[in-house]
Amino acid sequence: MILHVVNTPLRFRSHRHQRFAVLVGLIAAVAAALAGCSSAGQLTSPADTPDVNAVAGTIVRVISGHDIGELRITEETGPDAADPPYPPCFTGHDPDQRVVNFDLNWAGIDSGQQGPAPMVTVTIAGPGGTPLIAEIPQGSPPNKCQTVRAFPLGAQDKGWQLVYGMTLRVRSDTKLAYLWITVDGRAKEIPLTPVCVQGKCLDTPDPYQNNPNPPVPWIPGTPYSQTLTI
């Protein structure tokens, strides 16, 4: 999930982590339905629970000269990389909207097993062009929010990942199938591949077994393995 290192193997809790502390966070089962909308002017309060599961995702391999970074974006059933208490800008939404939660991981190839990942600037937006919102950890709660527009992702050495929790507000009836991702000015529509256990989908191993790392590798030809050359 650059302020401090957290050694928990279960949840993403800050910006920059050693690779081995975050790999388990990518292991998930098929997701339950996302929560509905709140009343006008009210804020949702997602429960801080370890039962957050992956819904869909993508891995964008960003090539910059000899450096290759992998931008992993995973749609989740709830906040996973974020830290409670959640700031209002992270959870609030209009009555006809719902909040979609994401994890962002930025590292070298295979979750940082190979590196380094280059320094880049990204914009991540929904189908209507609305940028996602990232939670920015602070020294004291609540944390801050920042739109993921011209958003800097620092260079990552081998064995390190940069991680953020993100949200996107969409209409309640919207079926989110893709995101627009811009890296250093190069834009691409990136599909969100649903989680499943076989076929052309975002395969995720059984979370109760010992799985090889990383659990979801970038594989050429799969719909969740995309490439951007900058």
Describe this structure in words.
This protein has one domain (16-229). The protein is built from 2 helices and 14 strands, in the order βββαβαββββββββββ. β6 (133-136) and β7 (144-147) form a beta hairpin. The protein has helices at 88-91, 109-112; strands at 16-18, 54-64, 67-76, 97-108, 120-125, 133-136, 144-147, 151-153, 160-171, 178-183, 186-191, 193-196, 202-203, 225-229. The model is unreliable at 1-14, 19-49 and 206-214 (pLDDT under 50). It is mainly beta and 230 residues long. Strands 1, 2, 3, 4, 6, 7, 9, 12, 13 and 14 form a 10-stranded mixed sheet that branches. Helices cover 3% and strands 38% of the residues.
Shape: globular
Order of helices and strands: EEEHEHEEEEEEEEEE
- Report the count of strand segments: 14
**How many helix segments?**
2
The span between the termini is 24 Å
| Helix amount | under 10%
Largest sheet: 10 strands, mixed
The fraction of residues in strands falls at 35-45%
Oligomer classification: single chain
Number of domains: 1
Radius of gyration: 16 Å
Mean pLDDT equals 76
Brief digest:
The protein is mostly beta strands.
Task: Considering the chains and any ligands shown, give keywords for the structure.
globular; 230 residues; mainly beta; disordered N terminus; four-stranded antiparallel beta sheet
Itemize the secondary structure elements and their pairings.
Layout: E1 16-18, E2 54-64, E3 67-76, H1 88-91, E4 97-108, H2 109-112, E5 120-125, E6 133-136, E7 144-147, E8 151-153, E9 160-171, E10 178-183, E11 186-191, E12 193-196, E13 202-203, E14 225-229
Parallel strand pairs: 2-14, 12-13
Antiparallel strand pairs: 1-9, 2-3, 2-12, 3-4, 4-9, 5-8, 5-10, 6-7, 6-9, 10-11
